[in-house]
Amino acid sequence: MSQTKILLDESDIPTHWYNVVADMPNPPTPPLGPDGKPVQPDALTAIFPETLIQQEVSGERWIRIPEPVREVYRLWRPTPLYRAHRLEAALGTPAKIFYKYEGVSPAGSHKPNTAVVQAYYNREAGIRRLTTETGAGQWGSSLALAGRMFGLDVRVFMVKVSYEQKPYRRSMMQAWGAEVLASPTNVTEAGRKVLASDPTSSGSLGIAISEAVEEAASRKDTNYALGSVLNHVLLHQTVIGLEAKKQMEKVGVYPDVVIASCGGGSNFGGIAFPFFADKAAGKKVRLVAVEPTSCPTLTKGVYAYDFGDVAGYTPLMKMYTLGHDFIPPGIHAGGLRYHGDSPLVSQLYHEKLIEAVAVPQLATFEAGVQFARTEGIIPAPESAHSIRVAIDEALAAKEANEPRVILFNLSGHGHFDMSAYDKYFAGQLEDYDYPEEAIAESMKKLPKVAG
C-alpha cells in the first residue's frame, strides 16, 4: 500500500460517540463523597450542566452527537490518517506505521473535540461563563476557542510553570478572548492557601483545578469545564478512534497495537476506546498508554480513591494516583502533568485489559525530532511520548523480522512548544524518575475510605 494520506468526507464525521462503559467487563467504580458514600448525580449540578452529568453516568453504548456540535466539528474533522512511509524507511522496519493527526484543529490539538461539546451544552443550560485549568495550554486554548464560538466568557487558571514556559499558548487563549491567570493565584481561597505555605510554588494541575472549581461553585452564571479524566470527556474524544477505524478499513488494514500519550486519559481513550470494543468482542489488539517517567501515574502510582484536586473540592475517584498534592518537577517540559488518571482508564489497566509504559524525557524529545525530520510535522512534546513507543514497537518488529501494524495518535503539533525544543537542543533537559519515596510519602495523605 503506497497511499500516504487517508481521508474521509465530512459526511463521515461520526453521528454518535462510543461509550466504553457498555463493553467493560465490570461496572465503573462510583465517585464517592467525603462520607465514603457514592455521589449522586445531582450533587454535580453546581458545576456541570444536566446533559453532561447524564453522559458521565451513562451506560449506553452510543450517544448521539448534537448537530450544532457536528457543524463545528466540520471545521477540522474528519482529521487525516497518515502512513509514515519516511519514518518506516528511516527505521528499516517491516512494520507499517500509521498516525491519526489531530493537530489540524484550530487549537492544534485533540482537545477541541470535547471543548466545543462542553461549551455547547453549557450555553444550552443558560450558563454564560466557564472556568477551567490548563497545564501545557492545549486544553485552555481549546476551551477559549469553544467559548468564543458559543458566546461564553472563559477564565483559565494556567499552571504557573507552564504559564512561564509556554507564553504563546497563553497568547493563543487571549487571542480568543479568554482571561488567563498563573496558578496558584490570590483570587481564590485554594490559591491563597498554597501561596501562604509556598510563595514560590510552581503550581500543579491539582491546584489549578481547585481554583477553577471553587470559582465555578461560587457563581450561578459560571460552570466548570474539564479537559480530561472524566467519563464524558473521554466519551467525546472517541470521534478520533471511530474515524481511524473507518480510515484503516478503507485501506484494508487493522492495527496490532494502538498507542497514545496518557496524562489524564482523554488522548488515549479517544483513539483506544473504539478499538477496545473490538477487543471486548474477541479481536486481538494491544492498547498502550504512554506517560513520562517524571509523572508515572499508571506505572508507579497506587490504585486508590483520591481527590482530583489539591483542596479536596472534587468527589473522590478511584484511579491510579501519585497523590493529590503531587507537583511535577520544574525540569519536566513535556506536559502530561496530572497526578491521577481517568477512572475508566485506571480500571481497565488494573484489570489488565490495556497496557502502560513510562518513557524518559530525553528519549521522548529524540523521537519527536526524528519524527519531525522524517514526516515533517513537529509534534507537541506530549504527543512525542506516543511517537517514542511507536518507534520502539517498529524497532522490535525489525528485530523479530515480523510485520506489524502500528497506530498512534499524534494528538497535536508543537508550534507553540518550541521553547521546550530549544532546551532540548541546548542540552538543558534531563531525565528524571519521580522518586519512589516521594510517592510513598504522598500515599500517607490519601483519604481514608473503604475500597
Explain the overall architecture.
It is a single chain. With 451 residues, this protein is of the alpha/beta class. It has a domain at 5-9 and 67-108 and 232-443: Rossmann fold (3-Layer(aba) Sandwich). It is 40% helix and 16% strand. The chain has helices at residues 50-57, 67-73, 85-91, 112-124, 138-150, 160-165, 167-175, 189-197, 205-217, 231-237, 239-250, 266-280, 297-300, 343-350, 361-375, 381-400, 418-425, 436-443, and strands spanning 5-6, 16-18, 62-64, 81-83, 96-101, 129-134, 153-159, 179-183, 222-224, 257-261, 286-292, 302-307, 316-321, 355-359, 405-410. Strands 1-4-5-15-10-11-14 form a seven-stranded mixed beta sheet, sandwiched between helices. A four-stranded parallel beta sheet has the order 8-7-6-9, sandwiched between helices. Strands 2-3 form a two-stranded antiparallel sheet. Helix 2 packs antiparallel against helix 4 (112-124), helix 5 runs parallel beside helix 7 (167-175) and helix 11 (239-250) crosses helix 12.
